[in-house]
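Hi F.,

I've been meaning to write this up properly since the lab meeting, where we talked about keeping a consistent format for the predictions we share between groups. The idea is simple: the sequence comes first, exactly as it goes in, then the structure tokens exactly as they come out, then a line or two of notes. No screenshots and no reformatting. I'm using this chain as the first example so we have something concrete to point to.
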Amino acid sequence: MRNRLFSKLKIFIITLLSINSITNAQTSDWLNYTCGKNIRALAEQDSNIWVGTIGGGLIKIDKNNNTSTFYNHLNSGIQDNSISSIYIDNNETKWIGTFGSGLVKFNGNNWTTYNTSNSGLPDNYVNAITADKNGLLWIGTDSGLVTFDGTNWTTYNTLNSGLNYNSIISIAIDTIGNKWIGTNSGGLAKFDGINWTTYNTSNSSLPDNVIYSIAIDENNTKWIATSVGGIAKLDGTNWTIYNTSNSDLPNNNVTSIKIDINNYKWITTFGGGLAKFDGNIWNIYNLSNSNIVDNYLYTLLIDANDKKWIGTSLEGLIKFDGTNWEVQNTSSTGLPNNYIREIKIDNNGKKWISTAYDNLAEFDGINWIVHDTSNSGLPDNYIHSIAIDNNNNKWFGTSYGGLTKFDNINWTTYNTSFSGLLAWNISTITIDISDCKWVGTWGEGLFKFDGITWTRYTMSNSGLPDNSIYSIAIDENGTKWIGTGNGGLAKFDGLIWTTYNTLNSGLPNNYITSVTIDANGNKWIGTMNGLAKFDGSIWTTYNTSNSNIPSNFIMTLAIDLNGHIWVGTLQGGLSKFDGTNWVVFNKENSDIPDNHIYSIAIDNNNSKWIGTGFGGLAVYNENGLVISREDEIIEENSINIFPNPTSNYINIKSPKFSSIKILNIQGQLMKTIYTNNNKTNIDISKWNKGIYFVKISSEYGIKTEKIIIE
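Output, unedited:
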């Protein structure tokens, strides 16, 4: 059956600007590729598990059919894709805490956001949520403890209560209604409604003042998870400490504790895996002795069937039934991590994306391929820089493995062991018109490689002002403009070195993060203290005091096909500068997923591919995105989608063992279903009217069809 002839279907989705709605204009212009493998929050509602991720949004997993529904800032009312906490009340309303965008209420139909601007919430970082027997919400923020009854907000902080620390990261309520409050550095607080009691390392046996989690067992005993001190047990009077020295606890960084129907304690650790403790015996589950996929765990849920759902830091969500380990689908794309270091686009339009921790991703617009030391010739998984040469070879600068060339078949590595490159830690790579590679390092100077010979430039043998190189740009004359770590900007024409710094020029800072050159030969220099333009004679500086640039810490620069300067900042978002006007894109006024911008690449459609610090990969085109998809498709009579047009539901007839993905016209994934049935019914009654695309994949191939929701 796999040998069937597949036809080809090419779909061009052109999203047009809306002149009537700012919201529609933003949505039509943005795409976001995220990873949902960093799990921070879990909650159960009937047959559904709700999952909060860092950067990947909110996911609903149906336990009965193992399908995942993805909610993010583009397709829902969530303002932030980083979710810190989830609580589901007796009315099945979801209360969702975010990292920086406040508290979100979702009743199944409507989304409501509470933040410091529109409510009594004192801080937009919401770390913990629970409710007492009267339904009063207790909310932990970075600026105190808050209660909310649906109308009124009450804040408890160090100024107006006995709370001794304002950053609240865990809350539990015992059988008599006492609130137990874990803080980020102030220890444990107990509040009975009138009196406050504080427990910390100074006045009690509490081993650490950072309290990640609190669980209360059937005897009203408190089990307290700490960041470096292991577990503290408090029975009301006596303290018992469990740590790696006096017990079989695998790690003293305990992130979560939950208690099952047998009163067994299940403990997640950051580095030591999962532990079960029955009061006498410890059972440890880690990478060495089980099929758990990660030892770095953040959170845990025990569901109504006593199954354990374990949130990991890098490998997603795991379900454990006591025997079998099953990884759940928590990512709507193949992006391996949401921290993007570098993006480059090769001669065929493929995107090469280096992410934090351990991944290089290759993306052709449809398929994702992840390269690392286990499946490729990469010498190191930490990739800081990427360059594409005239022959479409990829060059990767690593943190600990030197420089690697990939010709799409073979991998070749250059470092102190195998070449004249006397450095392991590569910070930047630029290729000149003669195909020579200019390689900047951390602390080892600048190297030139012509394919045979290596030439090294350092402070000792040249006019290079600093041995740490962060950026290199080459002008039309072949002159190199070199941004250094603390020596300012160096100009090298092949013979003469010229240094520009804060003492002899208009450069605003000697720490140069990025250098680019426009069509008029102007040099644009990003620094830790603003942006500089240098035309060869005159320096012009742009900062938060004299322009609308949103941050002085410039991380990356790019020039689009219209000659506009795109500026990525630390915490300030993305800016476009046309020489006169600044346009700022941030989480508050656009669909960009994060305000930390580390890399920008411009494709042939003038779309901006934006690498963020926590929000994954964003794509933006102010004239509308053009997405080209070329898929192998299943034979026409194998698929039937009806009714179409529709308003309430669709039925999909497909081969067994299919994945069904529904995308809106912007290309954003709306729903993913993995089915073993020939027929699937999907409720779309609450979706917005418009055009959608259903992509069905099976062993027979892939088919994409358009549907219309009226």
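Notes:
The helical segments are 22-29.
The chain is about 0% helix and 45% strand.

If this format works for you, I'll send the rest the same way.

G.
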